Amino acid sequence: MSTILITGGGRGIGYELAKQLVRLPVSEVALVLVTARGPSKLLDGLVAASAGRVLRFHCEATDQQSVEAFAAELDTKLAGRGVDILVNNIGVMPITEGGMHALDAAELLSTFDINVVSAHRMTVAMIPLLQKGSGKKIANVSTPLGSIEYASRYTWLSTPAYKWLKTDMGSKDADLDVDTGVNALKNLILSTKEDANGKFFNIHVPGWEDAKGPNQYNGAEIPW
């Protein structure tokens, strides 16, 4: 009976992942913990309908004090239980118009803080609870844009990272419906073992293994 923590679950991938996980039997997933920094009617509805299996917490992952307060609150709430899986799902992709010279340094630092440092903050804060859990697994949700080797695939696209799931960020023009993509993500997170440590994996969506264009969803390891 796993306890799974998802950050950034107010909408999009995080919300859909929580929704799909709570559909699994209690024998597989007992509790889904979700952080959100702002109001979310979607998440509130999921919590209300979950019979206590989905719990919502406020946390601002870019603020060290907020993360530490959340960790203490969660430790108290779990009353001796641990966290089996941490899913670091927070991320942004701001668009800079006008080329490299128009990129503001403050925005670059903010993006790095949200996309990279916030995952580190959360991971460090959750280590004591992960040590209490039986799964001891951390999954960091990313994008193929994180691969240096894949960078040339996307030079012709203005918003390449959006071309996958039809979320608010991904737009209606993305490749996959959010439920299809997140189902593949869920299966990847739940199935990986120790031999996947430190590796970067694509999701697997049947029928998309050899798709034309820059995006294939074949479950293969992505080079860093």
UniProtKB/TrEMBL annotation:
It comes from the Eukaryota. It holds the Pfam family adh_short. Signal peptide: none annotated. GO terms for molecular function: oxidoreductase activity. GO terms for cellular component: cytoplasm. Belongs to the short-chain dehydrogenases/reductases (SDR) family. PANTHER family: CHAIN OXIDOREDUCTASE (CSGA), PUTATIVE (AFU_ORTHOLOGUE AFUA_4G00910)-RELATED (PTHR43544:SF36), SHORT-CHAIN DEHYDROGENASE/REDUCTASE (PTHR43544). This is NAD(P)-binding domain protein.
